[in-house]
Amino acid sequence: MRHISLFARAALVAMILVAAPSFAGAASSSDAALANAVSDKLMEGKNDFDATSIIVTSEDGVIHLRGSVQKRGEIQRMEEVAKRVPGVKSVESQIDVAQDAGGK
Fold it and tell me: Which member of 10, 13, 28, 89 lies 3.0 to 4.6 Å from 61 by CB, making a disulfide possible if both were Cys?
């Protein structure tokens, strides 16, 4: 089980808030709540991936995942977790593989 420090969790929340659009048509409070719900699910200790570098945003129920992971297989597992969150219409991933050690 992965333990995430309070500092890392606070940093992730800060990244989400900074990544939220601040121009006309900014994300609604329901989009912000949905992005937070997805982020919480991705950060759960029972997951077999590290989502600490993933930024989650939402626009009209479409979840956008951005960042990098160590293994290619983590991307699909993150997308699957995000899709299971109530209210998510679809998931668009722009996650890069920082270092593909085995590509699982």
Answer: 89
